[in-house]
Design a protein that fits this description.
Structural class: alpha+beta
Largest sheet: 5 strands, antiparallel
Shape: elongated
Number of strands: 9
Distance between the termini: 62 Å
């Protein structure tokens, strides 16, 4: 009797805990579709609750093939793939998770000042920060940062360290695009005040100072899509600090000044700030 491949053993263990898995081949990419499924000729995605007409038993359709069913994972078509697999992939969104893929030291430094701490997993070049909760996926949301959740896959690199925390608004804000129709702001821009004057207990002055400095840097380093960068930066700052009363007029002025140095008008800054607050329900 042949020994069970290590990748298959890992996959079965993950699947038993509710994590949808799939084998990854050389290059750490999913196996290609079979001839019947090439170019989506089958009309659907296998092993998903909303699968459509496709009933391919093979490892087709990348992330959509990920499954927790041990009968599928150990079936003959999959067994052949596991023998060729170089590692195990998983579908974060299918497990109710979101992976913030930090690809270099600069990205990690940004995350440590801009995002709540959570479970981390070391990668070849950086870290995966894993949050409880799913969202849309998007690559290059900022330099060296990708979001992997629904309709995406990630490489399994171990359980990681630290306590997993709930998916914060600051991560969700990274993939939000500025509305195409901008409503002009009226009057002065007001800094949000917490309901009932609640004191901020979870953010230190140093944390806020670093967050504002990182936001200024992000805006000043934008080489393209300045409008979008300004909006997303405002959104991230507000989602992290806007509800606890930490922000002051001086902080907002610093952000507006950085944006105007990149060519943004005072009116556009005010509009972007207002739209960010509206998007967050503030």
């Amino acid at each position: 009797m042949s020994e069970t491949p290590h990748s298959l053993h890992t996959a079965l263990s993950l699947a038993s805990s509710g994590v949808p898995v799939l084998p990854l081949r050389r290059g750490k990419v999913p196996f290609g579709n079979c001839r019947s499924c090439a170019k989506n000729a089958c009309g659907g995605r296998p092993n998903m609750k909303s699968a459509g007409p496709c009933r391919c038993p093979g490892v087709c359709h990348a992330w959509a093939a990920a499954t927790t069913d041990p009968a599928v994972i150990t079936s003959a078509p999959w067994a052949a793939a596991w023998r060729q697999a170089v590692c195990v992939g998983y579908h974060p969104g299918g497990a109710g998770l979101t992976v913030v893929d930090l690809d270099n030291a600069d990205a990690i430094a940004w995350a440590r000042t801009a995002l709540p701490a959570t479970r981390t997993v070391s990668t070849t070049r950086g870290e995966h920060w894993i949050y409880r909760g799913n969202m849309g996926s998007s690559n290059a949301v900022r330099p060296g940062v990708d979001i992997k959740s629904t309709m995406s896959y990630a490489r399994w690199l171990g359980p990681g360290t630290g306590t997993m925390t709930a998916l914060p608004d600051a991560v969700r804000a990274l993939i939000v695009k500025e509305p195409s129709s901008v409503r002009p702001a009226r009057g002065a821009v007001a800094v949000p005040v917490p309901v009932g004057g609640v004191e901020c207990h979870h953010r230190t002055p140093t944390y806020l100072a670093r967050g504002i400095a990182m936001a200024e840097q992000r805006i000043s380093e934008a080489s393209s899509a300045v409008h979008t960068t300004v909006y997303r930066t405002f959104l991230a700052v507000l989602s992290t600090h806007g509800r606890c009363g930490c922000l002051t007029d001086a902080h907002v002025t610093r952000l507006f000044t950085a944006a105007q140095a990149k060519g943004e008008s005072p009116r556009h800054c005010a509009d972007a700030w207002t739209n960010a607050r509206t998007a967050l329900g503030m």
